[in-house]
Amino acid sequence: MRIAVLASGRGSNLRALLDARAAGRLDAAFVGTFSDRPGAGALEIARAAGIPAHALPPRAYADRAAHDEALFSAVADVQPDLIVCAGYMRLIGDAAVARFAGRMINIHPSLLPAYRGLHTHQRALDDRVPVHGASVHYVTAALDGGPVIAQAEVAVRADDDAERLAARVLAREHRLLPACVALIADGRLRQLDDAVALDGTRL
Ligand code: GRF
Known about the structure:
By secondary structure, this protein is an alpha/beta fold. It contains six helices and seven strands. It is about 35% helix and about 20% strand.
């Protein structure tokens, strides 16, 4: 399976995917890493691993749609079977979502459907929830709203702050994401063009 990774930040989830491949837990070829931020650590990690790394900063394009089109055309050029959003922090427009329906997944640091969007750890702490975590889900037009593939739970501690909680969730993300990608790569979780998730979402 050919995998393209989208990432805006430090790239620890990309590193976890590469570690899983090196350890024989993920049978896949990483054919490109794409970022909206030229300085993203994820691009460095990709280059060091010999994976083509592409930066497409939004300011180089007229508007969001034009950036999306350029980014996802570059992604399409590497002919991925699966696109993994591993800390890609921009909204993805409907056209790109439709183009890769059922072939694009995202990792999000909350137990969806709770806490879509940003600042998930602080929001969980503010609500005093006992359990927080991370989710891997299919990307649909609804922000962080696509069908969930799997989740990892993390118990919230009385002395947690957002940073401490984020660190424990991140450690779980690093196991969850490679496991989900391996499910798909091994054909144990298959998506068809006309698939409909249990909640009625068309994939
Ligand atoms: C992760 O917490 C991920 O869930 C979120 O952004 C963060 C990315 O971290 N969407 P990294 O760049 O993989 O280290």
